[in-house]
Amino acid sequence: METQTPQTTRGWAKKFYTIFAGQAVSIFGSGLVQFALVWYLTQKTGSATVLAIASLAAMLPETLLSPLAGTLTDRWNRRTIMIIADASIALATVVLAILFATGVIQVWQIYAIMILRSVGGIFHFSAMNASTAMLVPSDQLQRVSGVNQTLRAAVNIIAPPTGALLLGLLPIQSILLIDVSTALLAILPLLFLSIPQPVREMDAAGKHKTSVWQDMKEGFAYIAAWPGLMAIIGMALLANFLLTPTGSLMPLLVTKHFGLGVLQFGLMDSIWAFGMLGGGILLSIWGGFRKKIWTAMSGVIGIGLGILIVGLAPATMFWLAVFGMAFSGLMNPITNGPLVAIMQASVRPEMQGRVMGVIIGLSNLMTPLGLGIAGPVSDAIGIRTWYWVSGLVCLLMGVVAFFIPIIMNVESKRNGSGEQSEQQIAFTAAD
Predict the structure, then answer these.
(1) pLDDT (0 to 100) of residue 166
(2) Is residue 358 part of a domain?
(3) Are residues 183 and 66 in the same domain?
(4) What are phi and psi of 208, to 5 degrees?
(5) Is residue 206 part of a domain?
(6) Looking at residues 100-119, what average pLDDT do you find?
């Protein structure tokens, strides 16, 4: 199989951004579908329970299947996975469009299609993320992560109003078919461009020497043997647990503390997305510090500071909370972009899928846990307290991380004593 060498990275930008452009169009189409389906369920049922189940249908497959999807990504051809995943999502969306067009659509059918789309999405993300490490030189990964963060922020900003406009002009099945078209545009470049594959040991018959279960266990063992990565995962889990509820609690903060209404809540929601867009653009132009971990930990400090400002803002200084939310959004890509780049540059090519799959699965598990605890705690001790604690803990985590060698040396995979771990046999990082 083809592996990344100095030769295969020549002209990387043309190949990668051709594939990326197709994926960008597809992500926008998926954003339109997500908005259209949520709005349909809202109008059709008016039920918070229905919307909660829809969110679970979109989230649970990603949480539960990420480790398996990552393992299979490391075993199968990644370009083929992306083609099949996009095609499967498109096919599921065609079925949904037919159900709407014929007037036989039921809520449970929407749930089922959302689950299928989520399964296709996690396989696609896993394969695309692992492929990026093979297509992009490691000294450009942080900048490319910034471009990706910019794209996702732009979709979050543009897709909802575009979806609202289209719903006023077109039946919902036509919007669904737009997503089918964008999925096909994502597939098109993959039919003509190759993606380097990591080398895996095969037996004489050309079959894998290990089972899927053994590969999955190897992924967990790889992570467990890397102290710096374990520490970063621990930080990410704690941050997700603390920060996810801040979005859910925002309507109550705006109404009860600031005494304001829906327009101001909408502003807080939008300003975070615009801040994230700015952070993605900044990272894509700047490229971050030479050591990616410096950039990431600076971002963690910034997120914590922004959330702390939101919580500390007096009732008469709503503008200060707006600033804090914008700053937190700005720092989000500065944190996540470099962390993804570190994984792509440092993890062995044949382990990329498994490592990211485990990280995504564990991180997503923190979302329902955080939401379940934040509500009662905030009712008991005050909404602002959750923001104070979340912001302060994240800020301190980022500061303390600069003094922990296993975290600061994570890119070179050195343990605390300065000796190389056996995972040093890895994809070359250019830091």
Answers:
(1) 86
(2) yes
(3) yes
(4) -65, 140
(5) no
(6) 91
One domain, residues 257 and 328? yes
Q: What is the pTM of this model?
A: 0.76
Min mean pLDDT across 12-21, 45-54, 80-89, 187-196 is at 45-54
DSSP 188-203: HHHTT---------B-
Number of Cα atoms under 13 Å in the Cβ half of residue 56: 8
Domain boundaries, position 82: 12-140+151-197
Q: Which two tokens stand for residue 153?
A: 């922020």
How far is residue 108's CA from residue 385's CA, in Å, rounded to a whole number? 39
Q: Look up residue 113 and give its amino acid.
A: I
210 is a domain residue:
no
Residue 420 has φ and ψ, to the nearest 5°, of: -75, 135
> Residues near 253 by Cβ (< 8 Å), separated by ≥ 6?
310, 321, 383, 384, 387
The model's pLDDT over 262-310, given as tens digits with 9 standing for 90+, comes to 778 778 878 888 999 999 999 989 888 988 999 999 999 999 999 999 9
353 within 8 A of 72, measured Cβ to Cβ: yes
**Pairwise pLDDT comparison (204 vs 382), residue with the higher score:** 382
Query: Widest CA span of the chain, in angstroms?
Result: 73
Q: Tokens 């749930």 appear where? A: 111
In a domain, 190, yes or no: yes
Are 74 and 118 found together in one domain?
yes
Residues 89 and 160 in one domain: yes
Q: Are 369 and 157 in contact (CB under 8 A)?
A: no
CATH code, domain with 47: 1.20.1250.20
- Contacts for 346 with CB less than 8 Å, ≥ 6 apart: 410, 411, 413, 426, 427, 429
Asked whether 142 and 334 are in contact (CB, 8 A), the reply is no
Pick from 373, 374, 394, 389: which is nearest to 327 by CA?
Answer: 394
